[in-house]
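Sample A.
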Amino acid sequence: MIGYGCGFGFPGILLPQLELPGSLINVSKNQESWLASVSSIPMVFGNFLVPVVMSRAGRKVALYAVTLILTLGWFVVIIATSYEMLLLGMMTQGFSFGMFMPLRSVYIGECSSPRYRGGFLTSSVLAQIFGILFVHFTGSLISYQLTALCSISFALISIILTVYSPESPSWLATKGQYERCRENFTWLRGEDEMPELEKMIETVNLLETQESTRSTFREMIAVVKKKEFFKPVLLLFALYIMLSCGGAPVMGAYSVTILELLMPKANANFWMVALDCQRLLFTGAAIFVVNKIKRRPMLFFIGALCAGSQLLMGAYLFAKNNDYLPFDSLWIPGVLISLQMLSISMGMQPLPAVIAGEVCPLQHRSLAGGIGLTALSVSAFIVLKTFPGLISVVGLEGTLAVYAGVIAACLAVAWVLLPETSGRTLQQIEEHFRGTTLMNPETDEEKPLTYAAQPVYFSIQK
């Protein structure tokens, strides 16, 4: 995740260095926008490839593939002597990112307890923010080639960590390897949560019995029609589009440009690193907040805060550019952009990752996560590629207003589709999307997990 964050923030230090006199590689404004956004295109292909790898070869094999491809991408960037080679390196990284995003949510969601799942998923976002801070700070001091050389070390460390990581118990259950499944589950979570394991194995057996009677084509049609499949996918589409418009992608790639427009008298590089430090601090706090606050109220509060801060920044710029303000203040935009960083770090970025690890169905978790992340890849590409054009047409204030409107529309979709997932097992969440009423999470532990087994069986047979 740190290596992913380094790649995410790398255009923020690459583009300013390419604009310096005497740069080894000269690029136009249009080429700069491609360097900032091109990694989002192969992310789509990575999103659809990794479900196949995860389903057939397992989560660990997918982790090996992701880290090796990321290492190759950094190596191409380091040795690049032309714009085309830089583009190739960024695209290779994007392919790795696309594979890793669904893998991250699926692997952590399957290996962690419901009590700590939100914190673990949020900590992965904390690692990503640290990567952005690392690459922005390092790139402010040394060349982008040396910065890429430092960043490649995180991918190499990931390969070593993967060697000692256990395979997902959920995947082992789908392959019928129940002994290894129980061993890994016990190693990861102890003996206290064994009822969830038995419930998961029971559900897998029921699904296999039903699915074995269908042809491949009929199976695909049946999967698309399942409520527990298409509802989470639509929800993930809304959450990832909201993430793209929340400011995280553009602040990673165009932070210097935004800060120069918002605070022309400030030191843009200093503020870039300072905002990254804020994001790191706020995301660290989010690890604890996500485990304490329900998902639904937190999502809507943070979404409203993000859209509101964007509208206020746009209003400030509009008033300033039209001479409606009798003063030129630094603290007003500083406070507003800090509020946006707070909303991004506390919810706009971690919550989609947390929810994605909770709402996708077990039998088709890899496929559903990959399809959902397609929205993130496409929306991130559109946002990053069109950002310079929007700035030139409607200004930064108009661009922020457009993003706030998209966030409001996505929150409306989430209001309809998102159940409260905090404190519930993955099986209970899946049953909700099938149409089973969720029990009160505060009393779930007092009732046997087999309580909902009959509705699950009835739903499958029907």
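Sample B.
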Amino acid sequence: MFSNHTPECFPKMGEQDPSDRLRGDHLKETKENGTGSFSQFSSSVRAMVRIRQKYLAIKKRRLEIAAVSSQGFISPRSTSPKVFTFENLQEPINSNPSSPRKRRKKRKGRVLYPSSTLRAVPTKERSRAKNCLYLLCIIVFLQIYNAIENLDDHVLKYDLDGLEKTLKREVFGQQEVAESLLGHLQDYLSTYVHNKPLVLSLHGPTGVGKSHLGRLLAQHFRSVVGDDLVMQYFVLHHCPTDDNIPQCTKSLDSHVSEMVTQAEEEEKIPVFIFDEVEHMPRELMDTLQDLIHPKNNNEYLNAIYILISNLGHEDITKFVLHNSSVAISGRLSLTQELNPWLRSYLERHHVIFLEAELLPFMLLEKSHVMDCFIDEMSREGFYPDRSHVERLAEELAYYIVGEQEFSHTGCRQVVAKVNLL
């Protein structure tokens, strides 16, 4: 587009045509001088014709622009020159409003895949951090594996497999108690450092094998940790009268302190077995409670306490007799059914049973009593004749519930019967 101002080289509208003026001047000069040649005249005429054609083309273009401006599509401009900038630029208006406006399509990003013809793919340099991470994982794995091996080594020296075989061979009718006892010992003896001692409380009627199990545990642990780290305490023997209670509490405290100190030096776990706990005086129970829950010394935390008593035996007997059909068939767990009630009863007796693991014993059947006779007769050197054993077992008293017979005294009278043979 051209600006609206008239260039200085072109005449303004209404002025004389420069070609006419030039022609007149030239003719005048020719007449005056009389010396111009024909060739100079023809070249001048051609130049004037070109100028005139260019002028007419420019004039025609200006008239077209003025006509378009008068229709309102292009705003008229001033005759003064302006400086071009990118400000206030407007998109050109479509001359045909009925035609739809074309939208510019956005170029979608294409995923470029590497050419399969490349023979060698450039590889990045491996980071050293990955090697350190792999090394750290290997070290952690070795540490965990070593810890597991150490746990196995620690529990192996207590020979719990041998204890399991002994219980299966010599304890009759108490399979659930034996399995629960071995499970607690296995978990506790797997490590040496603990945050509290292991307290097991054995309960049941007379003659079901509580004291016998305590003697088996004492014999086993004496063989694996030594006599000095196993204490078997009979209340009626070590503290027979109330007059000896102060001396008994002092002696018990000092004896337990010496044993835990020695066990700490040897990195072993001592075992304390207390039988006839139902006859233990209140003061002695409080002393035992202080030893089980120490306040300052950590060596007291690595110890096993086994409490044996017949507390709650009457209710255990009633429960077994009332649920004998499901109990014998194996659909009833005495531990799960009896523990809530038994724990509430024992808490009223003393707070020492609050954190103890309770192991209730079941009544023995007639078949279990016969096994006791066979075992005792074999120990005494008698031939265990089956008919003879049945005759001896029938001399005992039983609870008869349907087709099942439960002994009143368990295997307690078996030794006396065999000694009379």
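B remarks: Residues 38-70 form the longest helix (33 residues). The CA atoms of residues 233 and 371 lie 28 Å apart.
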